[in-house]
Amino acid sequence: MPVPCLPSNMGKFLFLMMAVDLDLGNYERFLDLTLTRENNITTGKIYQSVLEKERRGDYLGKTVQVVPHITDAIKNRIESVATIPVDGQEGPADVCVIELGGTVGDIESMPFIEALRQLSFSVGPDNFCLIHVSLVPVLGVVGEQKTKPTQHSVRELRALGLTPHLLACRSAQPILDNTKEKLSQFCHVPAGNILNIHDVPNIWHVPLLLRNQNAHHSILKQLDLLRIAAAPDLRDWTNMAATHDNITNSVKIAMVGKYVGLTDSYLSVVKALLHACIACSLKPSIDWIAATDLEDESSKSTPEAHATAWETLRKASCVLVPGGFGDRGVKGMILAAKYARENKVPYFGICLGMQISVIEFARNVLGWEKANSTEFDDGTPNPVVIFMPEGSKTHMGSTMRLGSRRTLFQTADCITSRVYHNSQYVDERHRHRYEVNPEFIGTFEEAGLKFVGKDETGNRMEILELPSHPFYVGVQFHPEFKSRPRRPSPVFLGFILAATGQLDLYLEKQQNGS
């Protein structure tokens, strides 16, 4: 139940997500916020905190129950996180936006719904606005917009003690007036508070769609904030949405990964590519290639898929290998990296993709045929990628190198430093367990593979480049997490510029200050 669109010039506001998945990144991208791990509240976090209190004796031997102990923990977490600024300003936010994921009636969300019911009572009606998101489907044969799913979910929600102030109705086509009237009558929500989020040409139209329905006015009225709020200024969004609609040219990007059957696995990467392409007046044309289809074994087991995968790779203007875990598809990724290196096709490796380029270079340039990562082969004679020293091989939870960390450029004469506006360092977010073995760095650099970015200790390799290549870049961090619609990730932008032959001109203009 999210509050979808608050005007950015009304004051500071905070996003707090409960039992949420990809939406956390969507809010960061749309509103250019930097959220923390505390902004994501999960059932595991809540139960863990309650169990820890019980073990410490905080409950003085009382029986620990869902109500009040779990619900109190949820409310306390909401209230504490609401004071953490996420927009670079000081002080608590004016509005805390809470999204409760899942479906009304799910057993997993029951404690959270009860906690919100209690919270709505404690903060008062003028400080609580509930928006219920529901689907208005259309039966293919009849063609009628059906309101029963929304009626039933609202009835279930009201039975749990929460009455929605607004309805956000998803549909393929704009909902009809008689449909809105029926929803208003049976859900006890004013027709003016029934918002329709129908399918649009691109996602950037959604804020405009909500603005045109005065969603901000309804929310601010419920929260008694109309007197201090200004009208939303969405001129940039209007231009951005129109620009996207009018772009006709595209760039072919080969995405070689393990999880291409579920493309949402790479949603942040896809969005970062979109941001970079729009900045270049292009639309991304992503060709998904299952890494296993490139492997030699697939030529025998699935010859058609093997041939199609290689044909797709050869037609692409650039190759991107994103992150991942485990050894499935690694051979195919190595072949893709080799193809890009030998044929001067722009290559961008992220996290695992960087490690893949190191393994490929070790095998095919240095001649270490059995070079590998210890993640895939513990007994490799050339462990060019190793487990991080501070990690644990027995506990998978909380052992990754996470969060924003600083990378220092070792030279200004490299593509990555230049696309980052000749900065001496860059702060990017990490999410990995393995890294390039520092013992082999000298050998790699003598052979031409340069590690142009390292951490502050100089022992962790963060960025690699191949100077003899137009664009062959690998990064251990995840730049896609900080990419924004109007502020694309510099390294993603450089990748797209290289794929379209515009990188040199861009760097030249940047150097000249034009």
UniProtKB/TrEMBL annotation:
<comment type="pathway">
    <text>Pyrimidine metabolism; CTP biosynthesis via de novo pathway; CTP from UDP: step 2/2.</text>
</comment>
<keyword id="KW-0315">Glutamine amidotransferase</keyword>
<dbReference type="InterPro" id="IPR004468">
    <property type="entry name" value="CTP_synthase"/>
</dbReference>
<keyword id="KW-0547">Nucleotide-binding</keyword>
<dbReference type="InterPro" id="IPR017456">
    <property type="entry name" value="CTP_synthase_N"/>
</dbReference>
<dbReference type="GO" id="GO:0019856">
    <property type="term" value="P:pyrimidine nucleobase biosynthetic process"/>
</dbReference>
<protein>
    <recommendedName>
        <fullName>CTP synthase</fullName>
        <ecNumber>6.3.4.2</ecNumber>
    </recommendedName>
</protein>
<dbReference type="InterPro" id="IPR033828">
    <property type="entry name" value="GATase1_CTP_Synthase"/>
</dbReference>
<dbReference type="Pfam" id="PF06418">
    <property type="entry name" value="CTP_synth_N"/>
</dbReference>
<dbReference type="GO" id="GO:0003883">
    <property type="term" value="F:CTP synthase activity"/>
</dbReference>
<keyword id="KW-0665">Pyrimidine biosynthesis</keyword>
<comment type="function">
    <text>Catalyzes the ATP-dependent amination of UTP to CTP with either L-glutamine or ammonia as the source of nitrogen.</text>
</comment>
<dbReference type="InterPro" id="IPR027417">
    <property type="entry name" value="P-loop_NTPase"/>
</dbReference>
<dbReference type="GO" id="GO:0042802">
    <property type="term" value="F:identical protein binding"/>
</dbReference>
<comment type="similarity">
    <text>Belongs to the CTP synthase family.</text>
</comment>
<dbReference type="Pfam" id="PF00117">
    <property type="entry name" value="GATase"/>
</dbReference>
<keyword id="KW-0067">ATP-binding</keyword>
<dbReference type="GO" id="GO:0005524">
    <property type="term" value="F:ATP binding"/>
</dbReference>
<dbReference type="InterPro" id="IPR017926">
    <property type="entry name" value="GATASE"/>
</dbReference>
<dbReference type="InterPro" id="IPR029062">
    <property type="entry name" value="Class_I_gatase-like"/>
</dbReference>
<feature type="domain" description="Glutamine amidotransferase">
    <location>
        <begin position="262"/>
        <end position="496"/>
    </location>
</feature>
<dbReference type="GO" id="GO:0044210">
    <property type="term" value="P:'de novo' CTP biosynthetic process"/>
</dbReference>
<feature type="domain" description="CTP synthase N-terminal">
    <location>
        <begin position="20"/>
        <end position="225"/>
    </location>
</feature>
<keyword id="KW-0436">Ligase</keyword>
